[in-house]
TrEMBL record:
This is Glutamine--fructose-6-phosphate aminotransferase [isomerizing]. SUPFAM superfamilies: N-terminal nucleophile aminohydrolases (Ntn hydrolases), SIS domain. It holds the Pfam family GATase_6. It comes from Candidatus Daviesbacteria bacterium RIFCSPHIGHO2_02_FULL_39_12. Keywords: Aminotransferase, Glutamine amidotransferase, Repeat, Transferase. Residues 268-407, 432-568 form the SIS domain. GO terms for molecular function: carbohydrate derivative binding; glutamine-fructose-6-phosphate transaminase (isomerizing) activity.
Length: 578
């Protein structure tokens, strides 16, 4: 989603650092960008639609703030891009989030000139108005306290940078030349590892020093820097043409990482055993990992766990008690549809386990028990290695609760070998992509454990290739979707060697009889298949290599069609708005 990066310091390279910082967060997805820099006693602002250029001639300055925008209020135009200025061009502001009562507050402003259709621009004019009676930091606090919704704002008058947040991440780094503020800690790490993660309801003032306040009480808070030990995840493709491909290739190592230290798994398994009701929540691919959790727990531990999409959980959580356990799964740890239900569940005394790939993220900080996915930074927008790490952990948890953790480790090791063999024969999947890249629809069928695999496969294909793909439980075909099958429609069918085999083959026959082009992903060939891709049986962990097949297919379809799989249109890596 939107990204923020700001610098105030003693060196005159602030605007250059901001430009480089925006480049570091561009993987999160955006449609326009802008930079304000203070020079000759005034702000200059550059704004553009589309991607950041490779380099930009920027004027020297010691203070600068920039933003990558993912449009919510108002179309993608230069005027709507941030930073936004007040009527006098003396103040500049960037904003992440959605300011829900902006129309009501806009109506209180008289004689202000608006240049954009955004909610954000209202904030800077409100601050301009408030400055008539208060100094900058107080004016920003007064205005911020009136905003409804989850927001982070960073404002400057050329002397100070003032920032506040509720629900949208902001982190400050201390360097030897000053301070950096950003919405993503990874963008700061190449400059410093001394960070402060702002908490909700805090305000920070940055100039030659740093002051921290509580927004409601105005009480000063002693700043505590954390020295983080993470590595900077810069633009390093090695020899790969895209991050998506690089990250697909990293998966054997990522899975291997998951079985190195099982102490956390054992601890969380104890919590599951103790809990009166365990709920898994996630969104998108992470949501499919949660669905898989329900099947895995049922099969391996004979225990029911519940799953819900993060965005729906608030509507069905009325049964939570202080004996419930919530396992929240999120690569970014910033997805608002996870952070919000977690926070309301915590108010009911629910214990929360976070499974995330991002140290220091909002989810990581708020949860009672924290577990890192150890997948390393995921830069491509479409999730690959982080999802496999999520699934591996859920699988290990189900084996651990059943008291058979060693067996869980064995099946994961087996799947690692199988994935390595898929990496060797990816050309076969590329050939398939070349054959089917002109189609408009692809259907993916699975039953049991392969049902969430079918959902994930369809998501991977559609989000990067823009071909409509639909994942279906094989049994649901006859209840409607079979009407869409025509001569030549590709239907991917997952046929693992498990209890679903007979029934899913029957479903394949049904669509074959209507002219479908059957792509069988299975341990053994079958005369039904028009195309066969072999994935050896790895028992419960067959889901992992099966997903890798679909990742490659999505990737090759996208590249064949001329799309950049790392930055799919309209999507963002970290979904911080509802
Ligand atoms: C799909 C994808 C998304 C994310 C979803 C949740 O390839 O990447 O569906 O899985 O937006 O994101 P996190 O895991 O950051 O909460």
């Amino acid at each position: 989603m939107c990204g923020i990066f700001g610098v105030v310091g003693t060196k005159d390279n602030a605007s250059k650092l901001v430009f480089a910082g925006l480049k570091d967060i561009e993987y999160r997805g955006y449609d326009s960008w802008g930079i304000s820099f203070f020079t000759d006693n005034r702000f200059k602002t550059l704004k553009k639609i589309g991607f950041l250029p490779k380099s930009l001639n920027l004027v020297s300055s010691t203070l600068s703030i920039g933003h990558t925008r993912w449009a919510t209020h108002g179309g993608v135009t230069d005027e709507n891009a941030h930073p936004h200025m007040d009527c006098t061009n003396k103040l500049t502001l960037v904003h992440n989030g959605i300011f829900e009562n902006y129309l009501e507050l806009k109506n209180t402003l008289k004689n202000h000139k608006f240049k954009s259709q955004t909610d954000t621009e209202v904030i800077i004019h409100l601050i301009e108005e408030q400055l008539k009676s208060q100094p900058l930091a107080e004016a920003v606090a007064t205005v911020f306290n009136k905003l409804q919704g989850l927001n982070a704002v960073v404002v400057s008058d050329g002397k100070d940078i003032v920032a506040c947040k509720i629900g949208s991440p902001l982190v400050v780094g201390r360097t030897k030349n000053g301070f950096i503020i950003a919405s993503d800690p990874n963008a700061i790490l190449q400059h410093t590892s001394e960070l402060i993660f702002l908490e909700d309801g805090q305000q920070v003032i940055l100039n030659s020093s740093l002051e921290l306040f509580d927004l409601k009480t105005s009480a000063e808070i002693k700043p505590q820097f954390t020295k983080v030990k993470w590595e900077y995840a810069g633009e390093n493709l090695k020899d790969f043409p895209h991050f998506m491909l690089k990250e697909i290739y990293e998966q054997p190592q990522v899975l291997y990482n998951q079985i190195q230290n099982l102490e956390n798994i054992e601890n969380i398994a104890q919590e599951i055993k103790k809990a009166f009701g365990t709920y898994f929540i996630g969104c998108g691919s992470a949501g499919y990992a949660c669905i898989l959790g329900e099947y895995l727990f049922s099969q391996i531990t004979k225990k029911h766990v519940n799953f819900a999409l993060g965005s729906e959980f608030n509507y069905t959580e009325h049964f939570l008690t202080d004996k419930s356990l919530l396992i929240a799964i999120s690569q970014s740890g910033e997805t608002i549809d996870i952070v919000e239900p977690v926070s309301s569940a915590m108010k009911k005394g629910v214990k929360v386990v976070a499974l995330t790939n991002t140290l220091g993220s909002t989810l990581y900080r708020m949860s009672d028990i924290k577990m890192m996915l150890q997948a390393g930074p995921e830069k491509a927008v479409a999730s690959t290695k982080a999802l496999l790490a999520m699934i591996a952990n859920i699988l290990l948890l189900s084996f651990a609760v059943a008291g058979k953790l060693k067996e869980g480790v064995d099946v994961i090791e087996k799947s690692v070998k199988e994935i390595e063999s898929i990496l060797q024969k990816k050309d076969l999947i590329q050939k398939l992509a070349i054959k089917i890249h002109k189609v408009r629809h692809i259907y993916v069928l699975g039953r049991g454990l392969s049902y969430p695999v079918a959902l994930e496969s369809a998501l991977k294909i559609k989000e990067v290739s823009y071909i409509h793909a639909e994942g279906l439980a094989g049994g649901e075909l006859k209840h409607g979707p079979i009407a869409l099958i025509e001569k030549g429609t590709p239907v991917i069918v997952y046929v693992p060697d498990d209890e679903t085999k007979g029934a899913i083959l029957a479903n394949a026959m049904e669509v074959k009889a209507r002219g479908a082009y059957i792509i069988g992903v299975a341990a053994e060939n079958n005369q039904l298949y028009d195309y066969f891709f072999q994935v050896s049986d790895c028992r419960a962990s067959s889901v992992l290599p099966n997903i890798v097949f679909a990742q490659f297919l999505g990737y090759f379809l996208a590249t064949k069609l001329g799309y950049n799989p790392d930055k799919p249109r309209n999507l963002a890596k970290s979904v911080t708005v509802k």
